[in-house]
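Two folds, back to back.
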Amino acid sequence: MGSPVAGTTLFILCLISLTTTFAAAAFWPYDLRQGLEQAVRGRLLAGSGGGGAVVPISWSHAHYVANFTIGSPPQPASGIIDLSGELVWTQCAQCKLRRGGCFKQELPLFDPAKSNTYKTEPCGTDLCDSIPPDSRNCSSSGDGKNVCVYAADTRGGETGGVVGTDVFAVGSTANASLAFGCVVDSDIDAAAGLDGASGFVGLGRTPWSLVSQTGVAAFSYCLAGAGKGNSALFLGDAAKLTAGKSAPTTPFVNISGGDDEAFDNYYKVRLDGVKAGDAVIALPAGGSVVLLDTYSPVTFLVDGAYQALKKAVTVAVGGAPTAAPLKPFDVCFPKSSAGGAPELVLTFQGGAAMRVPPASYLLDDGNGGVCLAILSSARLRLPRELEGISILGSLQQENIHLLFDLEKKTLSFEPADCSKLN
C-alpha cells in the first residue's frame, strides 16, 4: 500500500477554487460554445513534421505549464497544458479587458509589433471564413488592412483576439510556424489571471491544437505531481513507451446516444471495470465513457460507481470519516487511519488495466487528514443522455506515462517515474 500523498495548504485552496465552479468555464465541456477552435476546418500551417520533440512542463499552483517562445526575435510565453484544449493562445500587448487592464501574468506580454515574423490573418481567407459568423468579425489594422478577429470560450474563460501566425519554439521544437490566438480581450479575472501563465497550449482533437498543427502521429505525457520534479510532454518520434507494443492499450471511442460534437476536442475511452482492493465497483451497462483531462486535478466518476467506490474506500480504511470534510470533498479521513486505503484498478475496453495507488487519490488536507480526490459526475450537471460520462483528472494520472496514437486512435500507458523521463 502507498502512503497518502503529501500536499500543501496552497494546493488545497487552488483545488477548491477549481472544483467548486463545475458549471463555469473551469470545467463545463457540454456548454462550450461552438466557436473558432472547433469549427476550423481550413488550412493547417506546416510545423515541425513528424520529428520528435521533448517539452518540459512543470506544476504551477493547480496546473501543468509549459514555457515556450513566440516570434523573431523570440519573446517568452507560458501556457497551461490542456489535453482537450482546442487552440494555442497567449495574451498580447494590445489587450483591453472589459474590466480594465490585462490579466496578471508572470512574463511580459507578447508584443506582435516586436516580431519580424508575426502576421495577422486577413479576412476572407479559408481559415477566417471557417469560423462561424457569430464568432468572427473583421477589424481594421493600423495599416488599413482588414484582419480576422474572433471570440471563443476556453477553459480559462471567454476570450477574444486576433487570428495570427508566428514562429514558435516549444521544448526542442524550434521554428514551428503556428496559427494562434493573440488575445486582446477576456473575462478572466485581472488580478488572479491564470496563476501566472500567459495562455494555454491545447492538445485537443482539433485543427488548431499544438499536436494537429505540428503534424505528429503521436504524443505522450508523464505527470510527476506537485513538488516532485519536472514532468514532460513528448511529441512525434519522442513519444514512446518502454513496454512498446506490449503496453496496455485501449481504443478511442465516441459517445453513444449523446451529442458527441460537444466533446469532439476530448480524447475518450471506455471504462469497463473498477476495483478498490477486492471490492468490485458496478458501472452502468456498457461501461462509462471517460474524458481524459489534464486541466481538472480531480476525477469525476459516474454517480452510482462513485457512491460504491466511496463506500469501499471507507470500509477499507476502517477509521471513522472526518465529521466535517474539507469542501468540496465528500469524505475525508484522519491521516493516521488511511494506511489501509486500497489500490484502485481501472480497466478499460480491451482489458487495459490502469493501477492508481492511494497516493494518487487521497489528498492531504493540510490539517492532519486526507480526502478522497474523486467526486461524483452528478456535480457536472450534464444532460440526462450524457450522465454516463466520467472524467479522469490529472491527480489520478500521476506517474503514469500515457501515449496517444493519433493514427491508430488508441491510448496506451505504463507506470513510470515521470520526473526521470525528461
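---
second:
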Amino acid sequence: MTKTDTNNHRRSRIVVVVRHGERLDYDQRAAGKNWVEVNRNKRPWDPPLTENGLDQAHQLGTALVGRILKDMNLNPKIAAVYSSPFLRCRQTAASIIQGASSLLPSENSDTNDGNSVVDYDQKTIANQLKVKVEIGLAESINENWYRSWCINGTDGTWGYKRKEIPDLDPDKVSMDPRALQPVAKLLDWKKRPTDAADGIVNEMMDNNYQSRTSLGGSYSLAGGNRPNLESFRTQRDRMAKTMNLLSDGHSLDGNDDETIVLCSHGGPVTHLYESLTGNNWTEHGEGRYCCFSMYQKEEEGSTSDDNDGSKWTPLVVNRVLWDSNTNSTITTGSNR
C-alpha cells in the first residue's frame, strides 16, 4: 500500500504471528530422554530450542524479508519483533532477526551484489532491531502447562497424567514447589541464569524495554488454596488485546505501512486466529514448529490507542516454509 501525503491517510499494519521453533525437551522425549528431570534444579518450565529449531527461525526471517513480503507486494521492512518471555520464543525471535539481517549487504560492499533484495536502508533498520519481551504473548498459564513440568516424572508432556492424577492438589501431589509461587516470578526472563549456549539470544534482547501487556491475573497453584489459573477465554482475549496494542506502535522510520512480528506458542497462536476472524480454531489447525500467519489491519490515521474493535484480514494462515500448503495441519502430538 502506498502512503499518501495527507495527514488522514489510510495506514496498513501487517502482523506476522509465529509459533516458536522445535523445542529441546520434546526432541529429547522422542529419544527416550527426560529434559525436565535433568534440569529439575534449573528452570524445567523453560526449555530451549534445538539447533534445528534455531535454523527454522533463521530461515523464516530470511524468507519473510527476502521473498514472502515482497511477493505479496508488502513492505519487507520488519519494524519490530516481540516475544513471549519463554526462552524458546525469545530464541525464535532472535533467530528471525538474524535471518532477516543475513540479507544485508556487507559493510565493505559498495554495490548491490544481487543478494540484497530490499529497497530501503535495511542496515539501519536491522541494526536497531532487538527482541522486545511482551508478557501478553506468553504460554497458556493453565493446569496442563503446570502438569508439563511441575509433577515428578513428567517429561514436558502437556497435561501430564490427567487420568492418574485428575486433580492437582498441592497438599496431596508431590510437585515442584516453585509451582506455588506467583507465575510472574517464573516468567522473569532477566533472572534466568546465563548459559553459554544463550549467548546469541542474550545479545539480541532489548533489556531496557518494558512490557506494555500482562497476563491479566496473578496465577499460581497456591498451596492450601484453590489454584488460580488462566481460563481459555482469558488467554484468547489477552492475545487479541496484545496484538491490537502492539500493532498501533510507531515505526522506526516514520512510515506507517509496516510489518511487526509476534513470537508466541501453539495454543495462543491458534486461538488468536479465532478472536481475529470469528472462525473455529479447526479452520486454522494445530500449528507446527515455526508456523506463521499474517494478518492485515487497515484504518484511517488516528491517535487513538483503543483498537479493541479492530478488524483484521488473514493473508496467510498457519503456514510453514517446508510445506506447500497454505493451511498446514497436524493431527498428532502436542503443539505448545
